[in-house]
Automatic annotation (TrEMBL):
Topology in the lipid bilayer: Multi-pass membrane protein
Domain ABC transmembrane type-1, chain residue ranges per copy: 57-275
Main location group: membrane
Statement: the UniProt record of this protein carries the keyword Kinase: no
Protein localization: Cell membrane; Membrane
Any Gene Ontology CC annotation: plasma membrane
Native species: Paenibacillus flagellatus
One annotated GO biological process: transmembrane transport
Transmembrane segments: 5-24, 61-82, 103-127, 147-172, 193-217, 254-279
Name of the protein: Protein lplB
InterPro entries: MetI-like, MetI-like_sf
Keyword annotations of the record: Membrane, Transmembrane, Transmembrane helix, Transport
């Protein structure tokens, strides 16, 4: 039963690793990997000396940090809230509505956000005008100071429901006798949530936190590419993944883009190992 999954991982995750060799070449599509000259660490040094590096790293770390700080605890809070709902019908409706956006493509989500934030008949601007909070529509989608908030908000809206499913499953496995004993002692539901529910799901939270730290340099790609179509947003939207796409696909610098992607992957593995080492000291870890 596991064999198809192993074959899938082998074909799509390990076989393509052969392609990272072009990071050490001046790769040409006409010569191929066999005849392209080897240049060692040339492209790595070029990236580390690039004047765009500080800006790209700032955007990557800030956007990833905001997604981690807001997007990571959000599904935990939602799971705790849903666990307290006693009406099963209402609980199912909320779960369905909250995790449905996960199955929408970023193209649909981006167009939905564009429609809401549009200057012409955008619902957000119309609401703010009705409340007399603004005098004229605000061009949210072309203002760099609003970009990070829009990206983080749309990511949280899209993923909060689906991510909460795992935590709800962990909560469902908690021994009910713990809540019964706490109720006999006079504990409120709020206190039970903090002294029983959260400690019991801490191992699951720790594992997902370790994975989140490992993905700290993965600030996003599709969402940032779609929301940053306006060149005015380049200074706040260009992250490592979009930088690799721009260098490799748009400018045909295949070796340079591969070197940047490989360097990012190595740093991500290092972050994962450090996060796991830190978590192991608290009793929960991936390995």
């Amino acid at each position: 039963m596991v064999l198809p999954a192993l074959v899938l991982i082998l074909v799509f995750s390990y076989v393509p690793m052969y392609g990272v060799l072009i990071a050490f070449q001046d790769y040409s599509v006409f010569k191929g990997m066999g005849d392209s000259p080897w240049v060692g660490l040339k492209h790595f040094r070029a990236f580390l000396a690039s004047p765009e590096l500080p800006l790209v790293m700032r955007n990557t770390i800030v956007i990833s940090g905001l997604k981690l700080a807001i997007g990571f605890p959000a599904p935990i809070v939602l799971a705790l809230m849903l666990n307290e709902v006693r009406s099963m019908a209402f609980k199912r409706v909320v779960q369905t509505v909250s995790y449905l956006p996960h199955f929408l493509s970023w193209v649909i989500v981006a167009n939905f956000a564009f429609a809401m934030l549009s200057v012409d008949n955008g619902s957000v601007n119309m609401l703010l005008e009705k409340l007399h909070l603004i005098d004229k529509p605000i061009p949210f989608l072309s203002m760099p100071e609003h970009f990070w908030a829009i990206i983080v908000a749309t990511n949280v809206w899209k993923e909060i429901g689906f991510a909460s499913i795992v935590y709800l499953a962990a909560i469902a496995g908690i021994d009910p006798s713990l809540y019964e004993a706490a109720a006999i002692d006079g504990a409120s539901r709020f206190r039970m949530a903090f002294q029983i529910t959260l400690p019991c799901i801490t191992p699951v939270v720790t594992v997902f936190f370790i994975l989140a730290i490992g993905n700290l340099l993965n600030a996003g790609f599709e969402d940032l590419l779609l929301f940053s179509a306006n060149p005015a947003l380049r200074d706040v939207a260009d992250v490592l993944d979009t930088y690799v796409y721009r260098m490799g696909i748009s400018l045909n610098r295949y070796s340079f883009a591969t070197a940047v992607g490989l360097l990012k992957a190595v740093v991500s593995v290092g972050l994962l190992v450090l996060a796991n080492y830190w978590a192991r000291r608290s009793g929960s870890s991936l390995w």
